[in-house]
Design goal:
Layout lengths: L7 E5 L4 H12 L3 E6 L2 H13 L4 E5 L5 H11 L6 E6 L17 H22 L3 E10 L3 H4 L5 H21 L5 E7 L12 H10 L12 H8 L10 E4 L7
Parallel strand pairs: 1-2, 1-4, 2-3, 4-5, 5-6, 6-7
Helix pairs in contact: 1-8, 3-4, 4-6
Length: 249
């Protein structure tokens, strides 16, 4: 399918992991993709891989916690097109953030988590929203951990809960322009951000899910493509958990 032919889509945190899976899927469906990534080496390599696959891809170095950086990315992303069609606010801090109880988390770690996951998501939409074409779409990325209250991850779960509320308010504010805003809640997914998670947790997750296997990035990229596409043209303000039914428990 070429659902996104001639359309520009920005994906933050797309140098690796889920973000890369998203830009690759969107690019294969015809999108011109912007790889908004903080790590220059990862971003450049992602651009090379996608271009080698015949995908129109461009890397723009971006720190989502920095207003000037996000604003500069938005200007660059809008060049050469008649408006951005879609945004996936995927970037966030998730690597090696667990293990501490609520009283062991430092104020510095708490503030950094909120600066990246909450403020960064807002800054992304704040900068790119005015450049979105009417009828465009935004997908924010939260986590299914907000439903079951993952222990020893309080600052992370709190930040991801905030993104759900943000999504609902944004959907109301952007609805007059027919811009849809929905929130993806991935379960524990194999990838760069989760490579250091103990095997016992993977086993527990797979056992408690309804669909008893480890989740892969390609379980999610089609969902993002659907939410950005005209196939979801009357869906907004929704949260969609993609976790094999784990959060049902």
């Amino acid at each position: 399918m070429q659902r996104f032919a001639g359309k520009r889509i920005v994906v933050t945190g797309s140098g690796r992991g889920l973000g890369f899976a998203f830009v690759e899927r969107l690019g294969r469906e015809g999108a011109s993709v912007i790889i908004a990534e903080i790590d220059s080496a990862l971003g450049a390599e992602a651009e090379r891989k996608l271009q080698a696959a015949g995908i129109d891809a461009r890397f723009v170095q971006t720190d989502i916690s920095s207003e000037p950086s996000v604003a500069a990315m938005a200007e660059e992303a809008a060049k050469g097109c008649d408006g951005i069609h879609g945004v996936v606010a995927n970037a966030g801090w998730a690597n090696n953030v667990g293990g501490k109880t609520y009283d062991e988390i430092t104020p510095e770690a708490w503030d950094r988590m909120m600066a990246i996951n909450v403020r960064g998501t807002w800054l992304t939409v704040r900068a790119l929203g005015p450049k979105l074409r009417n009828g465009g779409a935004i997908v924010t990325v939260s986590s299914d951990s907000i439903y079951w209250g993952a222990p020893r991850l309080l600052h992370y779960v709190t930040s991801k809960s905030a993104i759900v509320g943000m999504t609902r308010s944004l959907a109301r504010e952007l609805g007059d322009r027919m811009i849809r805003v929905n929130c993806l809640l991935p379960g524990l997914t194999m990838g760069e951000a989760t490579k250091d998670i103990p095997q016992t947790r993977w086993n527990d997750y797979a056992e408690r899910a309804i669909l008893k296997r480890i989740q892969q990035p390609d379980d999610l990229d089609g969902v993002v493509a659907f939410l950005l596409s005209d196939d979801a043209k009357f869906i907004t303000s929704q949260t969609l958990a993609v976790d094999g039914g784990f959060s049902l428990h």
